[in-house]
Design brief:
alpha+beta; globular
Amino acid sequence: MKDSRIIMGMPVILEIIDDEIYQDIIDSVFDYFTYVDQKFSTYKEDSEISKINNKQISEDEYSEDMKTIFSLSEKTKKETDGFFDVMNNGICDPSGIVKGWAIHNAAEILRKKGIKNFYVEAGGDIEVEGYNKDGESWSVGIKNPFNENEIIKVIHLPSGMGIATSGTYIRGQHIYNPKLESKALTDNILSLTVIGPNIYEADRFATAAFAMGKEGINFIQRLEGFEAYMINSAGLATLTTNFEKYTK
């Protein structure tokens, strides 16, 4: 069973291979993404994050999920030497951590319901469990940033792991260097794909590493349990030491 819906302004895709699949399980996953969108979207005036940015609610009124995201964001900021920062010109935008967090939580919903083989994707970021319909590891394609219709690498993702790509070639400039007054990225990096122990971990570090520019690949290299693939504006690819073990 495979289903896709537009939520959070992006396609959310769910594929389940298990024999017994119930509609309420499918709906629970999409309902969760809708809940996350309603709470964290900076494009919705009535979302909690918009109310926080507009100073309509105080810190002691924050929901538990909002407190969790702020705590995880601060943790990631410290772990990335400040390159991950949800604040930009006085506005809080936690999208760099919310998407991966939401995908991972959606995957946990499926695991708790006993689903053994599935694929959850939102906007190109993915977490998998078990195997695909052919009984093999789930395969994920990395797009060519110069030609979105071309797949340049196929990743075979082990059960439970996640893969996230940060870049400017689809959405334009939406990631910033918080350490520069101009916030501009100074290195011509087009995409950075990170494989991690789950999508939450892969996504948050992919965002921070992309903000680091060409140093980002070295940052991922130093993280245990992570691999990365970076492409610059000249079309040159740089990969971490063990990245290619996922391409075989």
